[in-house]
Amino acid sequence: MINNPLDQVRSTLVIMILFGVIFFLPLFIYQFLLVFDAATLSAGAAFTFESLVWALSYPVIAWFLWLGTAPRQDELADIVMNIPEPAEIRSYIRLSIILIISSIGFTYLLFYPLSLVAPDMVYSWLLDSPYLLYWDDQGIYLLGNLAGLLLAIVFAPVVEEYLFRGYLLNRWTLRFGPLPAMLLSALIFAILHPDVLGAFVFSIVMSLLYMKTRTLLAPIIVHAANNVFAVLMEWIDRSLFTGFEQVTISDFQDYLWLGMLCMLIGFPWLWLYVKRNFLPIQPLLLAHQQGEKAGNDYLA
Fold this sequence. Notes:
Blueprint: H1 11-33, H2 43-68, H3 73-78, H4 86-117, H5 119-127, H6 142-176, H7 178-191, H8 196-213, H9 217-240, H10 249-254, H11 256-278, H12 281-289
Helix pairs in contact: 1-2, 2-6, 4-5, 4-8, 4-9, 4-11, 6-7, 6-8, 6-9, 7-8, 8-9
């Protein structure tokens, strides 16, 4: 008996599609389709090219998932059929604000101590991340910026929630139980994002939200709203503060006060949200394992 949609889809297939596309598609494009010397590209042209490559990768992942799991079309539909109420959507937007503030705190909680002992690792893993938005005196690079926005606000929320909450969480719940499934899927989600600790916590909360609501629309909305706020923050930062000068370790360390402020605001706020909506956790995990919707549907 299938307790959860997509819990019969093999996780090895899903992971192979995810990592195969993420690592080999950009490599294929760069090595075999790039007929010009990348070193000769301007900063804006390089940004546009990279944004298009990464934006393309998510529809390709979705396409391969569709091909590999086509017999599960009805189950795919099942996990988006519970349409949230307007009050719930407001709660999701509020949660996205809580998470974006908390994520800054988690970034400093993990990476500030590391920046003191392993600055090169922090720089390469966190600070040297690709731009979502870019412009200079040569233009605004509309195509590249549109690709970055589509990737952040549409493609990533939809594909990642289907993949991690729809496929992997449900499959691993069947195999290992709900708590190990939640932790394992969060770990893989985290290593694909620069802010490892923040992404791990984000994934845990999205799993709990999916278990609570029994619809992927809930985490998709939160994920999309979270990324909207991240894009807005980047735009404000680039426009008013740092511009496109490369952020150094010293720059990162100078903003410790911001990280601490976000910890003081975000962590208690996030805990309060989790306590009100997802605790006690055991009945929620049991309901998910049995393919049922937990009680107290309304999210505060």
